[in-house]
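Collaboration report, partner site 2.

Our partner group contributed sequences for two proteins of shared interest, and the home lab folded both. The records are reproduced in the order in which they were received, starting with the first partner submission.
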Amino acid sequence: MHILITGGAGFIGSKIAQELINRGDEVSLIDNFNDYYDPSLKRDRISNLLGGKKYILYEGDIRDELFLEKIFSTKPIDKIVHLAAMAGVRSSIEKPLLYEEVNVRGTMLLLEMAKKYPVKHFVYASSSSVYGNNTKIPFSETDSVDHPISPYAATKKATELLAHTYEYLYNIPLTGLRYFTVYGPWGRPDMALFTFVKHILENKSIDVYNEGRMSRNFTYIDDIVSGTIRVLDAETGLGIMNIGGDREETLLRFIEVIEKNTGKKAIKNMLPMQPGDVPQTVADISKLRALGWEPTTRIEEGIRSFVKWYRSYYKVEKE
């Protein structure tokens, strides 16, 4: 299989690329190495995870139609894993037009490419953010997602609608994955785990929103990768699927495990809820389980792995 991964230098994309190459697939990556966070981390990811492996890297923007046309017309692509996007709820409130342009128009252009150059499966990243303030727990794919509370969530809802339309009109096999709070080594610096570990190790306070009354299905990167590839291997579109951990963890419990692994107590700055954030995201993963997938990594193991990676990458010695 020749598989194209957009956002291929990203947290999830680079790890999926590693697994696909290891099993013998041919992989091409697209990434524009934008400055949403330090681009050197993205380059170090692919250097570390894909070093010595054979792959093609296209540096460019998914909003560039001519750039995409060149890629799709050069060599047939069997399947697509579309992960390129502007991420983050809070940043989307500050830059909503950028989020619309990248997440909606960028996805639209890729769907146009898949229409013109047919693929066997187009898997794309959605988000648990689409559930908004849904009070029914756990969140199910059949729940209404008509009331997003951030521009980021709205763009992800829009991509789901576009995917449905293109599948209906052009018979493109499409599957959308609603990712739930992904964490682990090589993660994004804007995510809570990264920020918490950094600040705790530097003896700085951490901001704990909603007075810590938050809970999540934290999902370890390896589980995300195995689930995404399980879906990718399907030969037909599977609609919308949740992909998340199977245990609800409170934010304060998450911080306790970080404290244990860093050997330091957190200085907590307790704050009210942030605009656009939600107090609880819990996934019903029965649909993905039906494919034989199970999340296997608990936060005790996942956080330990992240702290070990963080100390090594940033050369932070134990005290």
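Second partner submission, folded after the first:
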Amino acid sequence: MTILKYFIWLLVIFLTESLLAGDFTLQTGDLLFQLGKSSGLNDAIAEVTANKDSIAYTHVGIVFVENDSVFVIEATIPEVCQTPVDSFLYQSAKIDGRPIVMVARLKPEYRKLIPQAVENARKKIGKPYDYVYDPDNEAYYCSELIYLSFCDEEGKPIFPSLQMTFRDAAGYFPEYWIKHFKKYQAEIPEGREGTNPAELAKSDVLELVYRYFSR
């Protein structure tokens, strides 16, 4: 092994251990990207957002630290709420007993926006979950809460939106989504502007700072 390869090998080990270090401390404004336990909704989300090169995260929440207690502000069923972080992690799918949760942090140039973002999110606590993924109602799904909370000084979201799709890899609407939107008497919002956790996790305004799992 050449000296250069040896140092690259050491660097990889160091970065991996840093991301899994047991003394990691969450900060207010961190985003927790989660792969939820298998369920009809989580499996349906993963099916239409999966990417062979990354984990299809199905949920995301904002960390809020208060008086040494750590919470996650999340838009989940049935409403936007503030959840103790241990409960949030418990709800995750697991790899070798570790929750499949990634922690992302705003890059330094965006961190001044965190206090207002957290305040924006907390104002929505108690608002209903958005079962039909409609950007124009007073209900919220998980990544929509993040998108609307993190805005620049002009009030514009710092995360990009995208055209939502509810089609699987073969181009069909899974039966779950057909029944889901029929239940709520709504059209499938295919092609409407929106967000999803898997794409949000890849935003260039974020940096990966920790993983609760190894892969």
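Feedback sent to the partner group on the second submission included the following. The chain has one domain: 25-211. The longest helix spans residues 3-19.
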